[in-house]
Amino acid sequence: MNHPAALSNGTTVSEKRKLLSNIRERRAKAGKLVAGVAAACTSDTFKAPVSQSRPPCILKQATRHLKNPGLVSLGGGLPSSEYFPFYECTFRVPIPPHFSESDAISPDSATGQTITIGKYDVQAGISECDLSISLNYGQATGSPPLIRFITEHTELVYNPPYADWQVCPTVGSTGALEQTIRMFCDRERGDSILTEEYSFSTALETLVPQGIKPFGIQMDDQGPIPESLDEMLSSWDEKAREARKPHLLYTVPSGQNPTGVTQSLERRRCIYALCQKHDMYIVEDEPYYFLQMPPYQAKQGSDQQAPEDIESFLAGLIPSYLTLDVDGRVLRMDSFSKVLVPGSRVGWITASAQVVERFIRHAEVANQGPSGISQIMLWKLLDETWGHEGYLTWLIDLKNNYTKRRDALLAACDEFLPKTVVSWTPPTTGMFLWLKLDYSQHPEYPSRPIEDIEGEIFEQAVQNGVLCARGSWFRTEPSTPASGMFFRATFASASAKAMGIAIQRLSQAIRESYRIE
Amino acid sequence: MNHPAALSNGTTVSEKRKLLSNIRERRAKAGKLVAGVAAACTSDTFKAPVSQSRPPCILKQATRHLKNPGLVSLGGGLPSSEYFPFYECTFRVPIPPHFSESDAISPDSATGQTITIGKYDVQAGISECDLSISLNYGQATGSPPLIRFITEHTELVYNPPYADWQVCPTVGSTGALEQTIRMFCDRERGDSILTEEYSFSTALETLVPQGIKPFGIQMDDQGPIPESLDEMLSSWDEKAREARKPHLLYTVPSGQNPTGVTQSLERRRCIYALCQKHDMYIVEDEPYYFLQMPPYQAKQGSDQQAPEDIESFLAGLIPSYLTLDVDGRVLRMDSFSKVLVPGSRVGWITASAQVVERFIRHAEVANQGPSGISQIMLWKLLDETWGHEGYLTWLIDLKNNYTKRRDALLAACDEFLPKTVVSWTPPTTGMFLWLKLDYSQHPEYPSRPIEDIEGEIFEQAVQNGVLCARGSWFRTEPSTPASGMFFRATFASASAKAMGIAIQRLSQAIRESYRIE
């Protein structure tokens, strides 16, 4: 990895080790977690003492009386768990570090194990959560055992440098972004937001119907260019832009979608300082954060590294904006979609208590938090079964798998694409490769528009049997002239062999359009 | 049940029987359902031919190419299922009609069974859905096999009298209501909505922050009074109300929360006609619909009926507004929360195609639909394991259980409450009993305000060891004078014995405040 072992924020390997053992001690001292149906709590309950600043577990208005011994509740319309027709649930999962599918599916008890979730495990004293709780109504703040795990994980990985940060589970980052935009932006005020000039299309589709105009910052191979950001904000002309000067930056700092670009620590510091200068709030969307890979080495592939320990893995990750956030101006969105299972529809946000409180009030009416069965399934695996060490081992293994996939795609590009017209920067994070086609070398340049040629190559590629994403689908300001011609390719799902065939087919479509052999 | 066997819309027992067998035939004819990861489809695929009016399964922009044989996708960033660390999942569930908890938990294979969901069951040809699909991204329209079941169920129970109705799974009715209000109402336009004068507090909390003003229709023991609705709309004064004339009615027609009131068929017809007259759109929120009970008979409890067949059960249900909806002016919200498990966070809406299309566009950015694991868990149980008949048998059994619970609470009220000051209408649907206290008989009437006395009784009841909900929590227009003093008690969760004790404690608190023996 290309990051120093001792980061600016003082997060070294030995400090990560200390944090891990602190979490173990803290839990042992706190004793068994007692949290029944719809128990309310916040991150504060589970943070290291130094970050505790607010009273823990504020029960809501009426449910606070439920603590009275002997009280009979005729209050809330919560169904009785005896009418839940699910009595036991099991999941077959891998035992770290045996993460290959065949290992876990095999009946060998050394590589795979079966997790059992009973209906009344809490009552029976065999677990801290069960079906009778998870299948009933919960709080929009999420299930207490899952909040504990997420809080500890957040502390372990990001360790925000202020006391009153909070986490809150979400129904995934798509929904979290929608809520966040509604919280911070107002159509009637003419609000706008800044983002990369090529941005995640679903994010753009979230903003536009809310009447919030997105503006794109020019990018280089490290992400948004600070000078472009500064220039835009310093010379903002409300009339010309038909929008108020933005107060919010939406960015995907690691393995950006669609460009695959990762912001270096230096770039992040620069952008953060500019956000301080212009008083911008930062929303960082980091689904690919843990897929940070070693640099690609052409011909020989990436270094086959010695097995990595979890402390070095953690210390080697580029710091989150959250880690640099001395002002409380960052909301980070994490997701289990890219590192475990998208179908759980569970992620979480981390931000200052003030912001999270407003987010929760919104979640209470927008969705009441994520599915209870998703939450217990994740908690059982991540916390009760794997623990922090097991989960981090999983993330290392996953990153290694994605590194192999990336290398296979890049090797195919090296071999088959016409380098006279196609160029790319090998991605160091995520799932995406961004291919740039040299418009000026096209035989029909400049008479035929970029979009036309891009469309032709896309259609021909589909005919040849390969589907890529068109660069123009991701343009933040589609009404302005395009800065270049791009295609996005993912190495997330196809096999190495299929990727080789796919790149040959794409190459053929490009050669045809450019009329080269 | 007090409803005629032949309803106005011609839904008789034999017609329900025919519909059930039609569904079986239709499925047999359609053959195996083929629907992979994030497969897109709508209700039309699964309706009886007569209701088919739009082409089925319109795949989205880019994913439509995925059907090309041999195509390699480097397009979407969907993770490969080999990295999902869940390989098999089982659920222990009851076999109809053995629905008691002890039956299903027992190892006896005649009363309980284990459902198994493998990772690659579809590939292996042993199921129509599996973990590799459910744990990946899905469509906001929900999982095709679940949509099929919900479509058939909706047709079986409500059978809307127009062709282009659609269903769409939701993350529960709380979130569905929020989306619906955003779809139909606009703060900037000064929009308002009509609802019952006492309404579900979470619904009110959803409207108010959006800047939508709720107004309450006077109620009697059949729900909103038509004359009150007509009078309000006919004489609407925008200035005095500080709001535009409402174009939306939000109502809970069956077992209303908090009053427990159920609108008769005649009342529904009357309200629907008035909505036609004033061109109002109707949002009906029906979580308690299937908990329609026989009338309560004091002293002897309810009739111990002979086992009911599912066709009679269906034909005996009071028709939904959806069933009366000849104009396409109804959006119905259904939920699995009160009849299966609230923690699944799954419900669905039914409305015209035009409205559902807009709802889906919103869901795509608000939540991407419900959790995949919740959807497969419900589908495996309801469809693949129980089938329509099994699920309807479950609903009959559940309704019978709630009837016993209601009867126990009502018997306790008959026995312990001071009838000189407390009155109530025995509910025929749902989970709630609404107790009215005669303010005019209170020793401090009229000098001491209703809210004060209500608060005193509430606090004393909590001290005595019983929690009820205060009527004032549910007031649609809290700034207007209260029309009476109320408490809401639920029979959903406490045991018969505990409810008896609870009502004695409440009675004690009332007697103390009213200074009666």
Briefly summarize what is shown.
The structure is a homodimer of 517-residue chains. Helix content of chain A is 36%, strand content 15%.
Task: Considering the chains and any ligands shown, give keywords for the structure.
homodimer, 517 residues, alpha+beta, Aspartate Aminotransferase, domain 1, five-stranded mixed beta sheet, four-stranded antiparallel beta sheet, 36% helix, 15% strand, disordered N terminus, transferase (chains A, B)
Question: Could you give the topology of this structure?
Answer:
Two copies of one chain form a homodimer.
Chain A: H1 13-30, E1 72-73, E2 88-94, H2 101-105, E3 112-118, H3 131-134, H4 144-157, E4 165-170, H5 173-184, E5 192-196, H6 201-207, E6 213-217, E7 219-220, E8 223-224, H7 226-234, H8 238-241, E9 248-251, H9 265-277, E10 281-285, H10 310-316, E11 330-335, E12 347-352, H11 353-366, H12 372-416, E13 422-423, E14 432-437, H13 450-464, E15 466-467, E16 469-470, E17 485-490, H14 496-514
Parallel strand pairs in A: 5-6, 9-10, 10-11
Antiparallel strand pairs in A: 2-3, 4-12, 7-8, 11-12, 13-14, 14-17, 16-17
Cofactor (chains A, B): pyridoxal 5'-phosphate
Domain Aminotransferase class I/classII large (chains A, B): 166-506
Family (chains A, B): Belongs to the class-I pyridoxal-phosphate-dependent aminotransferase family.
